[in-house]
Amino acid sequence: MAEALLTLAGVHTHIGQYHILQGVDLEVREGELTALLGRNGAGKTTTLRTIMGLWKASQGRLRFEGRDIAALATPEIARAGVAYVPESMAVFSDLTVRENLVLGARQGRLDSARLEWILGFLPALGKFWNHQAGNLSGGQKQMLAIARAIVEPRRLLLVDEPTKGLAPAIVQSLLAAFRELKATGTTILLVEQNVSFVKRLGDRVAVMDDGRIVHAGPMPDFAADRALQMRLLGLAMEAHT
Amino acid sequence: MRVIRSLLSDDVPRGRLLVALLAAILVGLAVVPFVAGGARALNTAATICVFIVLVASYDLLLGYAGIVSFAHTMFYGIGAYGVGLALGAMGPTWWAVFTGLATALTVTLVLALVIGLVSLRVRALFFAMITLAVASAFSVLASQLSDFTGGEDGRNFRVPEVLQPGYRLIESEIFGRAIDGRLLTYYLVLAVSVVLFLFLLRVVNSQFGRVLQAIRENDFRAEALGYRTVVYRTLANCIAALVATLAGALMALWLRYVGPKTVLSFEVMTDILLIVVIGGMGRMYGAVIGSVLFILAQNYLQLGMGRAAAQLVDWPWLARVIHPDRWMLWMGILFIACVYYFPTGIVGKLRGTAR
């Protein structure tokens, strides 16, 4: 069994007066893709932002590679090897595609072999290399946000709803991109509403409700259990295929 | 061509009209002492040079890093007072210039670092308020310490011999112009301004500049990529402040005078803000176009209106409308027209058209 790369134990997060995460226990194993599912408002995005240090956990332990990261600032967590792709096509729209990618490479230089590999499964970025990111389509922006996160090798990739609002053809491209990433052994924690998308990618699944993990286990078992899906998500995965 | 690209840090101005305008400005500033001999023209040209640097350094803060500061004139004033007071106290030597400059740069660095580290961690509004308070306090201090600074009247001082009007580099004239200390001072101001502008262009086109733009757009995303936003913002604040200090030192050498009204007043700060908006925020070349238009209007609009009003004696109502006393009104109208027709600034519009 793969080792846990990231462990959350009893994590609570408050945003203002709201108690969003109410004791999250989650394990993300090395080299696997863990899908984090749940209804709107369950706390999925807050979980990713808490891991990234953008919102501080008010209680609980966050361990990455055995190191406590709860007290670290966001840049330190990023430098430790965690990459984050926020939802809503988070590119820097005033900068070009190239400049966005160079920002992901903190030394200011792109590794040509790695770039060639990325453009192999995200070819649209090569076509718009010197175009302003703000002028790209939604799908291209999403691809750019993912490419920027992986332009340097990272230990863990946190991705928040990459398929949100995208056309089916673009979703297929993203599926291929995630498969490519998985093949390199990249550890991924993927928040998604599109359950058919994660069913085809996920090794493990965790389902959130009301700020807690209410189910965690292997994806094939979850995908096969219609009753469990109905109970936890209010729908079955077939409905999304 | 490759040398020019390299000098411009690969940030070549797009659009033929923009290139033509910038080339005309550069050539105009280079030849102005020989084609327009009057003191007014030379003074306008020197002010344009200094303001290009001052506004470009402010654009690094506002346009690239998204930081609103009201302390820029304070750093400009520190440079001017540093050189002016040193020359006044130590006599007209280059040693005094360098001592004053070094002192001014040190004071600026310490102040910019402290203000940045204390207030750039929190809301942008807090930083703006802190800079406003510190700049106001500094301005009052400069006026109150009259034994040292000359108070409201400021101080006149003598500059090193080669920069004095009476100095002649060569006895003969060139194109009918004496090669005197005033001319040498002008070319010193022009040369240093060009170097500082190219330096700022290099800064904004480096990885550091890209990170600043990323922070301006979304600081959380920049942090998530591993960039310490406070460090970058503070560094930007320090670089902008140091360049403003150098601009102030140039202005002092040119004017041979320092006083609160010329280098520390809030009027200078509003001029900088207006020029940034006219030229285009986040566009270094905007500082060039904006400064030229604004300083020319400030120096010649009143004169031009006076001449035009004199020609219109047969239409007294029209003469009253463009009476030179109303030049500020027309300046305001020109500014509103600029903002209306060029919401992204003149350079923003010209670059957009070129795309």
What do these coordinates show?
- The complex is a heterodimer of chains A (241) and B (355).
- In chain A, 35% of the residues lie in helices and 28% in strands.
- Chain A is built from 10 helices and 10 strands.
- Chain A has helices spanning 44-51, 74-79, 97-104, 112-121, 124-127, 138-150, 168-183, 195-199, 219-224, 226-233, and strands at residues 4-15, 18-29, 33-38, 57-64, 67-68, 82-85, 156-160, 187-191, 204-209, 212-218.
- In chain A, helix 3 runs parallel beside helix 6.
- The longest helix of chain A is centred in the last third of the chain and has 16 residues, at 168-183.
- The radius of gyration of chain A is 17 Å and the shape is globular.
- With 355 residues, chain B is mainly alpha-helical.
- Helices cover 75% and strands 4% of the residues of chain B.
- Chain B has 17 helices and 4 strands.
- In chain B, strands 1-4 form a two-stranded antiparallel ribbon. Chain B has a two-stranded antiparallel sheet with strand order 2-3.
- Chain A binds chain B through residues 52, 54, 73-75, 78-79, 84, 86, 90, 92-95, 99, 102-104, 106, 108, 148, and chain B through 206-207, 210-211, 213-214, 217-218, 220-229, 282.
Characteristics:
heterodimer; A: 241 residues; alpha/beta; Rossmann fold; six-stranded mixed β-sheet; four-stranded antiparallel β-sheet; B: 355 residues; mainly alpha; ABC transporter involved in vitamin B12 uptake, BtuC; two-stranded antiparallel ribbon
Say which CATH homologous superfamily of chain A is assigned.
P-loop containing nucleotide triphosphate hydrolases
Helix and strand sequence of chain B: HHHHHHHEEEHHHHEHHHHHH
Overall pLDDT metric of chain A: 89
CATH fold description of chain A: Rossmann fold
What helical percentage do the residues of chain A reach? 25-40%
So what's the oligomer here? Answer: heterodimer
Structure described in brief:
The complex is a heterodimer of chains A (241) and B (355). Chain A has 10 helices and 10 strands.
